[in-house]
Amino acid sequence: MRAAARGPATTGQRASRVLLMLWYVLVVAFMFAPIVTSVIYAFNVGSLGKQTSAFTGWTLDWFGAAWNNVSLRTTIQTSLVASFWSALISVIVGSALGYALVRHPSEAVRRFLTGLTYVLLIVPETVTGVSLLLFYAVTRVPLSLVTLVLGITPLAISVTALIVRAGVMTLDRRLDEAAADLGANPWQALWFVVLPHLTPAVLAGALMSYVFSFDNLIVSSFLTTPQVSTLPVYLYGSLQYGPSPAVYAAAAAVFIFTMLLLGIAALLYRLVQQRGRFSKVSR
Amino acid sequence: MPDTKPNRPIANRLRDHLFAGVPAIWLFLFFIAPLCFTVVFSFGHASFGGVALGFTLDNYATALSGFYLTTFLRTLQFAATACVLCLIAAYPTAYFIARHAGRFKTLALVIVLVPYFTSFLIRVMSWQILLARGGPIEAILNALWLHSGPLDVMDTQTAVFIGMVYAYLPIAVVPLYIVLERIPMTLVEASRDLGSSRWQTFLHVVLPLSRPGIATAVLLTGVPMLGELVIPGLLGGDRGVLMGQAISSQYLGSQNYALGSAMAVLVLIAVAIIVVLLARLTRGFDEVSA
User: Fold this and answer.
1) How far apart are CA B213 and CA B286, in angstroms?
2) I need a surface site. Which of A8, A199, A266, B267 has the fewest CB within 10 A?
3) Are residues A93 and A199 in the same domain?
4) Domain range spanning residue A14?
5) Contacts of B14 in chain A (CB under 8 A)
6) Alpha carbons A280 and A17: distance in angstroms, whole number
7) What local confidence, expressed as pLDDT, does residue B48 receive?
8) A8 pLDDT exceeds 80?
9) Is residue A186 part of a domain?
10) Do A38 and B123 touch (CB under 8 A)?
11) Which stretch of DSSP H or E encloses residue B51?
12) Whole-angstrom Cα distance, residue B155 to residue B232?
């Protein structure tokens, strides 16, 4: 109808759509180029045990080399453990925060907490990192796995809180009230009524905080010691003196691990959404 | 209120206070308190490997002069440029996803976001290979006749800009996508029916309405860029050190905690100013969350 009224406009519209699509495709290529590169170069022969920018040939040796590298294995272990604890803490603290961001009765408290959550996200990590280093130096707490976990939790908490907040926003307030009217105390209402509805958000928050904690580099780099080091910090360090392709092999393995986790997260989310749809129908 | 539940409000209040209090205390202990230490130390007297508490502005005087001032200004300029480049790249992307991708909207958004969830370090270190002499991009550009001979991008500002835009593009796309998706089609049609061209409609209707998204995108990209440490470190070479590297070397290298703290506080002040400016820019709009 409108197309008939404005003949030439549609050509222009089509042209701009094609241009935008072209741009989108370019951006996607730009986004994936480094990832594809890092995976391909994990198979690069390299030269004299170092990675080279020119591809010199295919080999699988570096995966074995990465596996046999003791420091790589220890740091991966540390990373897995540290991000597990960080994710566990942020799921509890971050979910509570996400709930309070929407439901706390006081407007002032809600605004304050919202501000705090955003501040966590935007303060440059370098500043957070040096501050934590200073903090532990002054309070004479020796750096350990515990201080590392405590250092990376704030970021993970704010990520979880924002995801859970989005979930709480879609919740009907009357659910809480109905539960209370039917005799549930606030904790029962939370456990039996609110939490089941928030499961996808909480799970997504848990996995996101795990991924973010596992990947944390800047804050961790200030809090790691030769004894307690994480994979990103170790990889970053090894980049300073011409990395071996084994670093890329380890990176490729981590990439697959992360993709698996995200895939599981997406699947879980789907599943819970479907369950929600069924329960709506039966209601 | 029926009198059958007299103590329910108290229990409710306990829950509310716990849910707000525990996270607040946690974040104060492990985030705000350390930042306060930095602020206090920035006024202290420096000595090697330690700081004598006190009140002096010497550290700020040092941080705002000579090499350190140049570094600070360079960082501001760098972050501003990288942020603008990032927005220029992200806006059409978000626009396409929100208004032209149709039923593939979610998929199109997810595809752009997936790289963001892979390891930051791996993505940045791959640019070392991509941009290096004799690397893949040199080969491609030469093959396309767009460039001839070796590529001299690694260890330059250009490489740092590419890395910054690359690393922050996905988080710029999200808030832009959210606002663009919410702008009602009817508004655009109304503007067109009233006789404005598509370009005018975009400039006077769509762009002003996407202001909160732009502000959020700047907040999530430009502000963290002020402290960026890894990207300039891996791609920028030794010249043109940025604030993040300068601060970190005060702590890990020369052990001048007082000067490092003053520099960190300067970054925080810059952050605060940007946040206030952005809040003004979006006043009157509902908060747009990422």
Assistant:
1) 11
2) A8
3) yes
4) 2-43
5) 186
6) 38
7) 64
8) no
9) yes
10) yes
11) strand B50-52
12) 8
